[in-house]
Amino acid sequence: MPREAEPSFNERTFVLQALQEGLRVDGRAFDQYRKLQLKFGDQYGVADVALGKTRILAKVSAEVTTPYTDRPFDGIFTITTELSPMASPAFEVNRPTETEVLLSRLIEKTVRRSNALDTESLCLVAGQKCWSIRVDLHVLSHDGNLLDGSCFAVVAALRHFRKPDTSMEGEILTVYTSAEREPVPLSWLHSPFCVTFSFYGDGEITLLDANLLEEQLRVSSCTISLNKHGEICQIAKLGGTPVEAATLVQCTSVALNKVKEFSALLEEKLAEDSKRRDKGGLLAELSAENER
Q1: pTM for this prediction
Q2: N or C, which terminus of the chain has less Cβ within 10 Å?
Q3: Where does 52-169 have alpha helices with state H?
């Protein structure tokens, strides 16, 4: 199986020595993210996220299907991740690495198991028909901190997505096209985001948004998933050097501030996209009437 190129002895020494002196190679502060950019596609439910040189694309699709027998009143919600050799030579097609498994599991826990999406609202006919919402996550370029970028992309794509409107007449279900009826947004309960901390030395040095080189040199990491109201969805500390409880409490406080920034950015981009799409919609009709 291909492996990532290990940092050289000189790189390792230089980066770790710089961290001891309070410096990062790219000049950022220890608690500073790289520039986070979000673009929506022409279709609803397509989000393109860039975090520095890390780039991720999320696409949401929906289809009518049969619900699970043990959950007849719920719709189906799945997230699939794909890490291809295009993102990094360390990834292979159809051979999931540990990175890919952890990425998909942590995003599942953060978004699906925290009930961010109201799956009951996806039910059309109890036990017979429901919406199946699927998010496909494609990593286009890997330069560290895939988890935070991927979680942001998934939440942004789901918030942006619109599913076709439906109606029931007797036992006949009608699904309308976007030309017949305006598509409707998903029933969304809260927006959880991931914030990953990397630890160095004996756990006394903490970095936010480590790039690929910094990730290869860390002694342990911790991912905190929460929403802007401070409700924690999960804390994942997967092995590595032990970290003091006081450090984790401090990390949670920092994570909450970052999540509030993510939420504000997402709301701003959604408002911009909505305004852009409404150029020929209701606002244009109202202004045309006024001109007449």
Answers
A1: 0.90
A2: C
A3: 98-107, 146-160
